[in-house]
Amino acid sequence: MTVVAEVCSVYEERNESLINAGVLALSRETGDFPGVAQVRDHIRKDWVVNRVSQEHGVLTYVGKDNRKATQDFCVGAKVELDVQHTCIVGAMYGWHYITDEEGIVTDVDFPCKWW
Length: 115
Prior knowledge:
Largest sheet: 6 strands, antiparallel, barrel
Number of helices: 3
Helix content: 10-25%
Shape: globular
Distance between the termini: 22 Å
Structural class: mainly beta
Number of strands: 8
Radius of gyration: 14 Å
Strand content: 35-45%
């Protein structure tokens, strides 16, 4: 499961980016990789959501080379995030887009709510 978020701000001096997805969108759970989510893009895969508030997350770099937030992100850009725990994340959304291997939407799922 992935979540699409938007970059709200880029902080050159801290080498971080603020996104509009926090605890409510991504959960607080950690797991197989650092942070609560990581950018799915293969070029930016070493950017992770390392800190979260209720509605925002902060992308920080955990790679070994010297990538800069200003070269990878701009305000308004969309980022696709792999999340740690899909059951928690999935419960927060009223529908889920089902995609094929190329990322093309093939169906929409409306999960059972209010059990």
